[in-house]
From TrEMBL:
Similarity field: Belongs to the MYBBP1A family.
Keyword set, alphabetical order: Nucleus
Compositional bias ranges of the Basic residues kind: 1145-1163, 1190-1199, 1286-1298
Coiled coil: none
Compositional bias ranges of the Acidic residues kind: 704-728, 737-756
Protein name as catalogued: MYB binding protein 1a
UniProt-recorded Gene Ontology molecular function terms: RNA binding; sequence-specific DNA binding; transcription corepressor activity
Low complexity bias (residue ranges): 1272-1282
Annotated SUPFAM superfamilies: ARM repeat (SSF48371)
Location within or outside the cell: Nucleus
Matching InterPro entries: ARM-type_fold, DNA_pol_V/MYBBP1A
The keyword Nucleus appears for this protein: yes
Compositionally biased region (Basic and acidic residues): 1125-1134, 1242-1252
Amino acid sequence: MAEMESQDVAGPVAPGEASKSGARPVDREGLLKHSREFLDFFWDIAKPQQETRLEATEKLLEYLRARPEGSEMKYALKRLITGLGVGRETARPCYSLALAQLLQSFEDIPLCGILQQIQEKHDLQTVKKATMRPALFANLFGVLALFQSGRLVKDPEALMKSLRLLQTLAPHHNHLQEQPQKALVDILSEVPKAVLQEILPKVLRADLSSVLGSPEHLQIFLLAQQKVPRKLEELMGQVNLFSDENIPRLVNVLKAAAASVKKERKLPAVALDLLRLALQEGKFPRFWKDVVEQGLLKKQSWPASYLCFRLLGAALPLLSTEQLPLVMRGDLIRHFGEHVVTAKLPNQFKFAPEMNEYVGAFLEGCRDDPERQLAVVVAFTSVTNQGLPVLPTFWRVVKFLSPSALKGYVAWLRAMFLQPDLDSLVDFSTSNQKKAQDASLHGPERAVSRLRKWVILRLVSMVDALHAEKEEDVIEEVARFCFFHAFFEAKKSTSQIPETEQHFSFPLESRTREVVSGAFFSLLQTLSSQCRQAPEQVQDGQPCIHRLVQFADSLLNRSRNAAALTPFTAPQRQAWDRMLQTVQELEASSSGTKAKAAAFQHLLLLVGIHLFKSPTESCDLLGDIQTCVKKSLGEKTRRTRSKATNPQEPPWVEVLVEILLALLAQPSHLMRQVARSVFGHICPHLTPRALQLILDVLNPKEDADEDSVVVTDGPEEPLESAEDESSDGENGRASAGEEDSDEDSGDSEEEDRDADVDQGFREQLMAVLRAGKALGAVDGEDDDGDELGDEAMMALDQSLASLFAEQKLRIQARRDEKDKLRKEKVLRRDFQIRVLDLIEVLVTKQPENPLVLELLEPLLDVIRRSMRTSSTKQEQDLLHKTARIFTHHLCRSRHYCHDVGRLVGTLYVQVERLVGQASRQADASVSLYYFNAALYLLRVLKGNAASKPISKTPKKEKAGSKAKGSEVAQAAGGLDLSLLTPVYSSALTSFLTKRNSPLTVPMFLSLFSRHPVLCKSLLPIVIQHVTGPARPRHQAQACVLLQKALPTRELRACFEDPEWEQLVSQVLAKVTEKLTVDLTTVLGVLQSKQPNLQQRLQQGERMAGSSRLYDLYWQAMKALGVQRPKSEKKDIKEAPSVTQNPISTKRKKKGFLPETKKRKKRKSEGPAQEEDAKPAATGEQQPPGTPSPGKRRRHKRKAPAAAAAAPPDPAPAPTQTPKLRKKKRKLSQVNGATPASPVEPADTKQPQKDLPAKGVSGKSPKSVLPRKKARLSLASRSPSLLQSVAKRKKVQLRKRKA
């Protein structure tokens, strides 16, 4: 502490030591400042945010490095050690980590001393029972802090003490569980071998029962076996852990280890060490069979099972090719497959993703060993549930396979497809599947079918993960394999076609061929996308689909070796040959039409491939496409725009559009992309009739027309059939049962509903009952007859049964009809979403085409209809896509039509129609789309007028008068205001008069900003509705329009100076008329409140916010023209003398009032307050607006007198709150200034001797500027635009007077 006294500025010390140190008062403020910063570090260290903790720890270390010899270090160690045992469990590790980093940074701190302080602070012998748990954790985290510092293994004395402390903590299992033993193992794993030899007898008992008693003791044994085997042998002798006696105890130890890491979900280190020891001693088979499969798996415990799964994944890199079958074909891998199949519920833990990580790491780490890679991948694929592999068809880990392993895996999959070897599979059945008595579920045919479907889907999915430039041979081999077995069958083998040399051990079913066909077209989609991404890497310059077509042609020409499942007819074969010829012609096309020819070529090849799937439809399409292609390439590549709008366009475009619509009707993503590509090339040749074909799909005229749209679905269903079958049987049956129950409940509800409304069924029921005489007395007849006999009852039952059976059939037919209509609606909406692709292509690639203008109203109709019925996700998708195309690709496009020709008049009519529809909509969001469409048409009209040649004006004419300014601006606009002004005038009038108008202020502001000339014509309507009989809401909207429109430069450029001044005067007149209010009543009310308010302030009542209320009162009076009165000055001699003691410059102790705040000073305030009340009363009697007599003199007074002249206790400025004034008074007292009494005269001067010698500011509070007389001038409170006009008029008047 003496060192601290010798410093100029004292550093921060621990609380409680400041009084002992004798620090000077001058240094106390700096000490508190640093101490506060220093103490905040410990608060931040215990916060739950990791970033905050690390930042606080780093700042603490920097702070201590700057003061290594100060008392801060002692306090920091004491505070961190205390924090190890705090009650908050989340804060203990934070303090432990901070202590570890502190010990790591300051190596001169002895660890033994720190450990002694920890034991003294948290003594387990003297601690109470209630605080036993925090004390135990404090000792544990203290040892961990020493270990994490990295210095514990270098200090033998501290190491031994720490180990003894951990052994002392070990019996407290209720609180610490196995944490002390785990810490002991972690420390011993870092200890050098020499040190471990010395301390091994002290930490490990020479008893095998103790070693096999807990996972921690076993791990210490395995650690010693690995590091110091000789010392361990001297201590315990020869030990065989895998003997018959020890295996049951090993199983129990591993089970306990699995339970200890249940929450962490990781592999215990003792299990991995035991596996390595078994491999090292050559006893791995015994360990795996007896300990893992016959031991842990028999425990029927999921934690033990998960330990086995993790042990399997961790063992893969350690096993050789000969050892892999032992672990991959046993009970463990079968149990893993059963877990994958049954763990389907969302809340169940699924181990498959973790196993994928193990397999991926293994495959990536042994790329140079393809045999082991192939063995592992084949082993996991061979785990099947009744023939269906448990792994998904898309497996990401195959991307890590080396090229040779990949080829081997593809060959194995093809062999399993052709000749399935069910005996080589690790097959199993779930418990529910075993209970099923159906023999067809256990037959080999079903297993083969499930396996083949999965294999073909795995082959197709592998292509997605492969690189086209690296594994092109494998990709083409898979494509040829899928195509051949989807549409052909081998007759006679030949070496030229390897696929004909393959034979099936089980015949290929038709349903499996459908799956192969769907998988092949899915593969085409993948190949097409890869070819587009890397077109330069295509083999021989040909796309993938072209090589497949050539392969198909070779198969058709070799009918002796291979036969098509559906042979071509003569017309179909001719269409195929013509397609190949057209493709060759397109390849030889000129470079100018290369892209267009490539699009047509892709379309022809795709439709040609579909000949094998749907020969009849594809044959007709091929003929039409070839005709359209020839006509398209025969014409000029670039035509004039006048021809583009010529109605006498060749019909090939319309035919091709119909073909593209037919292709879009198929649920194929590949067809969708090809249609987009082809349509992008025929957009320049599009005709109104062809465009109408597309629009008819989006906006059908009648519901009957919608029903005529045929959309096919189903080709992609086989792709998901195998995936559906992979789910467990019980889940499928459960879901089916739920669906049946839902249907039954729906049936009952519908039957009840039909019973209430179907009068015909009621009449039939009554007739049957009357015929059977089951209704008793009818129409007043007596009910004295005998009861019905047995035959009559049987006949009645039969009649009722037939009647209800007919009713049930009618209900089912009605339900089927509704379901059919719902499905048709879903297909129709899906088809419309696909057709929107063509619209998007048109507005993106041909925005200057005049046909784009015809898309506005159809798209708006789709938006309006979808906004009304957007209940399903499909309707929302249609709405979002249509709105995106309309807004982003059409209205906000940089390019638009510049040549409308004779369509100008039609566009003006369309603008009128769109604005009218915008005014009639029920929803403002829909109205916004219509209004934006009209703005887009105005943009087109303005652009077309601006693009016309304008005759140049001579320079002399340009220098003429400014009277033609508005005409020039109007001509620059290029719009016919005589047609547009009535349209928007009616819309604006409707907006400012109707109660629920869909139009909004931003719509008209957008119109005004884009077309200021039109805004000039509409301003009179806005000004007219500022006042008058309009509703206040509409008047406010008119004021907002004026406020936003008038400051724009574009609008000002449309007016000449006289016109602009006249407009501003008109606006001022309207606003002045609106703001003229009789304020006499308000003024009278405020004046009546003035005496009471001022009297309360002068009497010393200090209510919350009273001073602020007084200031607000006079601000309101100033706005009404009444000046705030000033209190009169008192004579200095009459002022009561107040003896003021000089205030010491030393800082006052907390809790003591200054002399000026004591109550004895307030006894003389009574007379002064009475005298102060008189000038205030005289001021109140003055008429409003009368200036005070001493106004000129007050301008010359100094700042202190002006500040003291304010009324009692007012704020120096209106913006200063009472809290701020109180803070300033306190600061002035600290600096040595004595605040004046609230009732003290303003001009009373204090004696010079009373001023403090130091720290006194010679400036008084800021003086209040004299207030001018308030005037009710509208120009002074108007916007800047109106103020500028008023100033301009004042300047002109001054010039005239001068």
